[in-house]
Design a protein that fits this description.
single chain; alpha/beta; Aspartate Aminotransferase, domain 2; four-stranded antiparallel sheet; 36% helix; 17% strand; binds pyridoxal-5'-phosphate; transferase
């Protein structure tokens, strides 16, 4: 079988084309227009939040979210070592200090048991990051944040529609969407995300004042009553109506998108059982959307992720390595950040983990081919 299976590809439907051509016909191609408003309103509603502020990408969303908290130089934000650089960047660029905790060996999300011992009198926020579609164990995070009066910047970039069973508000508990928990919650709509606008992001909040501040920051902090006059430093992080049109179309079929992601995850789970691999988990309190289906080679298997990935490539299958821990990033070593810090779970999974094709157009035959190929390589 000579297949070329990408790790991801966007699935663009008829509605996207219809809404896009509406933008072109009406001339609303810039950062104002009905699709921007609809995208913000509909995504906030889907996630259970009041306000949505669409921005140019997820990295910008993090940057704005941290900026909106008005941190002072040296304030600290606790976050996972296993994540994308955007999380640390947002904090460092706002002159605050990122403080790391290791990840949980099962879910690969931040180990919530390590948070409290990292709290100091400078700590101002916690940044939980839902990894590869699996939620962070949010109730302990919410309790710690309340106890120490900390903001939560929830990074749900990879967790569109993932759910967490929270018992914070009711004794019986309730399934809540990822992105509904943060003081500020952020999303990415990059092309490899379940809902994609090509490039794009959003910040969600229930706080009206934060929402106003975020809107101002995204648009150069023009004074409302005097354009071209500024009391603060902002950014141009605007999303276009064209991009938002794609998002609006996809939110209309979000249930189908999530069902397909979960179906892919379950097919892989079934077919990869018994191989020397740790498969993604789904805790009883979690609904994983398997944004990317990640696997970690078990220690008893001799080859590393790199060689295994190269062999997959020879078979026409594209894969991607896991994140490199933030404490191991050359750029942060140069900056003398995270000096001599060790996060053993992050280190192990970043060397032994990679993810398999997980795109929305993946077929049963492709999943069979990927799993059969991996079986051959690992046996
Ligand atoms: C957890 C997480 N946060 C933030 C981002 C940044 O999003 P973007 O690529 O849209 O800037 C990503 C990107 O994939 C991500 O995975």
């Amino acid at each position: 079988m000579n297949l070329s299976i990408p790790v991801n590809e966007p699935l663009i439907g008829i509605k996207e084309k219809e809404y896009l051509s509406d933008c072109l016909k009406t001339g609303w191609i810039s950062s104002v227009g009905k699709y921007i408003d609809l995208f913000e309103t509909n995504w906030a509603k889907f996630c259970g939040k009041k306000y949505g502020i669409a921005v140019s990408n997820g990295t910008a969303a993090l940057q704005l979210a941290v900026d909106s908290l008005n941190l002072s130089t040296g304030d600290e934000v606790i976050m996972p070592s296993f994540s994308i650089i955007s999380c640390v960047l947002a904090v460092v660029r706002n002159k605050a200090v990122p403080v790391l905790v290791d990840c949980d060996p099962d879910t690969w999300t931040m180990d919530v048991n390590q948070i409290e011992k990292k709290i100091t009198n400078k700590t101002k926020a916690i940044m939980p990051v839902h990894i590869y579609g699996h939620p962070v164990d949010m109730d302990p995070v919410l309790k710690i944040a309340k106890k120490h009066n900390l903001a939560i910047i929830e990074d749900a970039a990879e967790a569109h529609g993932s759910q967490y069973y929270s018992k914070i508000n009711t004794a019986k508990g309730k399934w809540e969407k990822c992105g509904s928990f943060g003081t500020l919650s952020i999303f990415s709509f990059y092309a490899n995300k379940p809902v994609t606008t090509g490039e794009g992001g959003m910040v969600l909040t229930n706080d009206e004042k934060l929402a106003e501040r975020l809107k101002s920051l995204r648009n150069l902090c023009f004074l409302p009553n005097r354009r071209f006059c500024h009391e603060d430093l902002g950014y141009n992080f605007r999303l276009t109506n064209l991009q938002a049109a794609l998002g609006v179309a996809q939110i209309e079929r979000i249930d189908k998108i999530i069902a397909k992601k979960r179906w892919i995850g379950k097919q892989y789970n079934k077919q990869l059982m018994g191989l020397p691999l740790q498969l993604p988990s789904e805790k009883p309190w979690a609904k994983n959307i398997y944004w990317m289906y990640g696997v970690v080679l078990l220690d008893k298997y001799n080859l590393g992720a790199r060689i295994t990935m190269a062999r997959m490539k020879e078979k026409g299958i594209e894969t991607r390595p896991f994140f490199v821990g933030m404490h191991e990033q050359p750029v942060f070593k140069k900056m003398e950040l995270f000096k001599r810090e060790k996060y053993p779970t992050t280190e192990r999974i970043s060397r032994k983990g990679f993810y398999l094709p997980s795109g929305l157009s993946l077929t049963t035959a492709q999943i069979d081919y990927v799993t059969q190929s991996l079986r051959e390589i690992l046996s």
